[in-house]
Write a structure and sequence with these properties.
alpha+beta, 7-stranded antiparallel beta sheet, 5-stranded mixed beta sheet, 21 strands, about 15% helix
Amino acid sequence: MLILQSLGSRIVENILAIALVLLSMGGCTSEDGPSAEEPAKAEAMFRLTGTTTATVAGYASEPLIDLRAPQGTTYTLSVLEGEAWCHTSPDGEANTVSGRMVSTMQSAKIYLLSNYTSASRTATLELKYSIGVSVRLTLTQGIYEKPAVYGQEWPELPDYTDNDQTITVTHFAPLSASKTARNFTVCFNKEKGYADWVAYPIHKCYMNGSYNRTDDWAYDPKIPVEVQPNLMMGSYRGSWVRGHQTMSYHRYVNYSDELNAQTFYSSNIMPQDYAFNGGMWNDLENVCTNKGRTSGADTLYCVTGTYGVKGTTSDKAGKEVAVPEYCFKVLLKARSASNKTPISEITDPKALMAIGYMALNASTSNSGKLSDYTMSVAEVEQITGYRFFPMLDESVAAEVKAQHKPSDWNIN
């Protein structure tokens, strides 16, 4: 009995000793996460730098903020300083956004307007987690600097600066045996997998003869293949179709198919809602056709683009591609074809006509009338942060870009 009692006492002593060791180590843990006594970890940082501070160029951009917190944690991201140009929504109407961590790692996006002031500026943001953790982030944006060399100063080219995300290239094609013309300039976003914008002229010289749609889907030879979707295998997955930014029907001559074939480069294509592509968007393209091709029409200068991201899809090879939230166009031309003065030298705002268009990339954008989605070029600039038609004389630019008269364009 004494032996058993002594053995029992030692077992109890050993159990107590082990318990004391575990307590001194911070208590028991489980594979499910930290104990109740250990504070949950949460952080936020700019993807660009991997820290809570970042410096970006002066053009419009959409920096990503990487969030890390336990699954299920809710958060609120607020702009505390810089609210006039740093936003949490692509339309520029919000400076606060809330969400929930569906996984332990995800991202949030902020939307910056171009900085046309004479000095750099700073935005301060705060990320608050529901678990009691707050993170301050500071972003400095430099001034917008127009590229020293444009290559060519064509009226349709917006101000732009290439960055780590984008590649800007121009394509040329023959109109005849003796004439080669610019086809379009594309600002391709490598992260999204489609162009931020495509700029091009429309004139009857580009639509001469019998229309031949080549359907010659191909990679853009001027852009690395690895950043482009493979559209030769078919359209995007889901309800997204291959939407042209420079319309195929705006590019055909009897001399060569190259002009039309280039519009089927992956760089000129965006994921577009099926119904929208064949509905109101097509109606707008027909407006452009009528204003740019008909007898007596002067050159129509166009920029077609995308803004915001509403999710992702993929090509048939499985490569992920972002889906644009909005599609837009801005248009500029001389009112009279008899006006042979270059656009950049016109100093009478009444001699020019301009209009903008922006709509959600969704079937709902087929409701109402086409004029319901038009706006001034200045309003599209305000939303997107781009600066369009910089070749306009400064004395008339503001008045021209403020125009919003759908009737001038036969838009009802």
